[in-house]
Design brief:
heterodimer, A: 463 residues, TIM Barrel, eight-stranded parallel sheet, two-stranded antiparallel sheet, B: 260 residues, alpha/beta, Rossmann fold, six-stranded mixed sheet, 8 helices
Amino acid sequence: MYRARIGIHSHVFASLGELLAKASPFRSGDALAGVAAVSAEERMAARLALADLPLRAFLDHALIAYEHDEVTRLIVDTHDAAAFAPIASLTVGGFRDWLLSPQATTAVLAALAPGVTPEMAAAVSKLMRNQDLILAARKIRVVTAFRSTIGLPGRLAIRLQPNHPSDDPRGILASTLDGLLYGAGDACIGINPASDDPARLRALWNMLDHLIDRHGIPTQSCVLAHVTRQIEAIEAGAPVDLVFQSVGGSEALNRSFGVSLALLREAHEAGLSLKRGSAGSNVMYFETGQGAALSANAHHGLDQQTCETRAYAVCRAFAPLLVNSVVGFIGPEYLYDGKQIIRAGLEDHFCGKLIGLPMGVDVCYTNHAEADQDDMDTLLTLLGAAGVNFVMGVPGADDVMLGYQSTSFHDGLALRESLNLRHAPEFEDWLLHHQLIDAHGRLRDSTQLASLPFAKLIADLRR
Amino acid sequence: MNLTTDEQQHAPATSADPWHALRVHTPARIALGRSGASLPTRELLAFGIAHAQARDAVHASLDIAALRADLATFGLPIVEVRSAAANRAAYLARPDWGRRLDAASAAALKPMTPPPDLLLVIADGLSATAAQRHALPLLRETLPRLQGLQIGPLVIATQARVALADAVAIALGARLVVSLIGERPGLSAPDSLGAYITWAPQPGTTDAQRNCLSNIRPEGLGYDTAATQLAALIRASLTAGISGVALGFGEATPPQLPIS
């Protein structure tokens, strides 16, 4: 039982899960789940009670029962008590103060990560304003590598997302070349396939492998099929760089995705076995998103942001190259408008970074959400200030396969220009070598096709 | 205004991309050119127009009087139902309300004797524009292909999700229900109609138990083709007593790359 008094009103919260849910900034998904605070005052009362709660409470009380959920078991069994020691005596409110203080340096926060549970990260984020989420996150550095090195200070990487409605390899290649010539693709070239057919998937892996190899592009490919298809492809000899899977914060949600921790372990080992990375061996790419648990009825009465942070524990177990919160994709029943999408994007980025993940964000929305490009510009710029590891690059921000709006190659250029963010170092060298960027990292004008690195490929493709 | 690439007049301040011939291979917005780091004004406006049309489609209301007049040509009884979502904002925030009938609609629906083989529900969904434009021509092609089947009244459903049709079918006792519903508008198409076929719907029927035809509109899956596929699916489902993944549908082979 958790209590707080505001004036003459005494507010009571029956469980830790209820306390977290009611402390959460309002969003439509929590109202849909019936777990949101019923009044603005109740929300503040929950925050008052949460602020006084010792962080240790999250080690003593599992939000989803240990016996019934392998994600809970993962969180509890891998908690690093020694790393937790510096904050062991703090309350959630004290944790916020500490995170924003000069004591919490980049090195201190890196050492702390294994001691922070997802629930602690979720709890403190609920007391933080957007400004706090930015300031705390920008102190945290999570650097990972495969062929490019991602997450270094002052750098931003882009996932090139060249989707096509029917997986036409020519169409996907056309969008890929467009993105590369715009200086995008240092996080990865990642295709969401429309089809699950192994032969069609194999054609995509082969095409990207050929392109990356022939042109010496310091990046990694990914075909975002179900992880089972990727394991089969590896066994069949496909040139797989990154292994992808969508994951969630409860065993039931992961089951609805058709995965378990054991299957993810198998996928991780299969990816590592190919030894295709040159700069590092982070082979996993995960995607998450608030609302997924409720949509699969796998949320156990928890609020969507707390469920989301629990997904990060799953990611953390597999040393990923990239973790991407696809924040506005799910629709207005979970995040209704630009305000809710912006808040959620900053929360996800901060919470993921705090527990040690290389966080990127798919800054995005659907046409039935109350949001537009201006909202995405705002979130993108805030995430740039917060030190986001990577964002998406979709031609013209319009994903013609998935039917939503993300960030464009142009948006990547604009963020680099406004915040002076450079490419991943290996990719920057490649762009410089091919004279696609100048010494300041700015894209050069390319008026002559013949002078471009892919001139022959483009000429062949035009025929 | 016409915004095809070839007709664009680039001002000196914008730089064109010399690979724009690749646009023949994809509907994606590639080779847009740049003004500094940003989109050229014409591309900025082209995107804005597409988004505006999608937004208008999401918030459009079904013109029920006009739709009734259209559907009267088929000589079938017409029934109107509403979901429990009272307005568009409630509909967008609460999909659970959009799947339930409101009290008045539920009270008005009585089991039919004999139970019809098939119920056709025309629903606004996320694009009333799609239902308004495409329901009539699609039904004109489809109904002649359904001869011999016992078809219940045409149902017009507003603030409706796909599963609202389940509730209607359960109330009327129909064996199979087809929901012709406006799909979530994309930038390339604000008026795509979807057709969802569900055998023996129950409360809690999931999408895995439905068959779906998507992107029905003249620029996508044309009326004639859609009607042929829809009628085939309906008959297959009625014969097999099943719908969903188990009923299946073939896949086209993708084009091959011209290069190694």
